[in-house]
Amino acid sequence: MQINKITPNHNNKPAFSAKLNGKLTFDISKELYARKFGKYNQIYAAHCKKLEKAGSEHSELYLAKYADGTMGFNLKNPAITTAYEIPMGKAKPGHLLETFFNIKAEDIVKAEETIKSLIGEKINGLINAAKKNKDVYNKVTTAGKDKNIEKAVKNLDDNTIIDLYYSAKK
Q1: pTM, to two decimals
Q2: Greatest CA span in the chain, whole angstroms?
Q3: 3-class secondary-structure state, position 48
Q4: Residue whose C-alpha is closest to residue 94's, from 21, 36, 19, 22
Q5: Residues contacting residue 63 through CB under 8 Å, at least 6 positions apart
Q6: Structure confidence by residue, pLDDT tens digits, 47-75
Q7: How far is residue 148 from each of residues 61, 133, 165, measured CA to CA in Å?
Q8: What is the pLDDT of residue 93?
Q9: Which H/E stretch holds residue 143?
Q10: What would the DSSP string read from start to end of 121-142?
Q11: Mean pLDDT of 94-118
Q12: Whole-number Å distance between alpha carbons of 131 and 145
């Protein structure tokens, strides 16, 4: 399965938006054949295409292994923020297919909106806290190297914004 193909009739733009991590597609394909569900390969491929067309081009759906032995489907989008990833489903080993087929294209779009709202909430909260509290204002403008609060916050990385946001809440 080619993940990042370019179609010539679309002005060299990616043929889809969200990416499916190579390990994710490999593990699901491996399970598909290990469970003797190879006859469902076309359904699997069609579902992959639906998910690939959803969301923005910077989003990626990938698998993570948890301490309890389960596998989690997570969505990340470093173009929005590197501080948050959204869990999309959890599966026991050998049962990735069921969880994968439960993920819908609209779930990817909703997850991206959640990521945007999480980081937006922190940015707005930090700006409001800096406007109300001189100590927070000094921390933000010092860290962001600008006396204008909004400009200072734009100069900060996501992790610094979150750290300052939570320190302002104390």
Answers
A1: 0.81
A2: 65
A3: helix
A4: 36
A5: 21, 23, 24, 27, 71, 72, 73, 74, 96
A6: 999 999 998 999 999 999 999 999 999 99
A7: 37, 14, 17
A8: 86
A9: helix 134-144
A10: HHHHHHHHHHHH-HHHHHHHHH
A11: 95
A12: 16
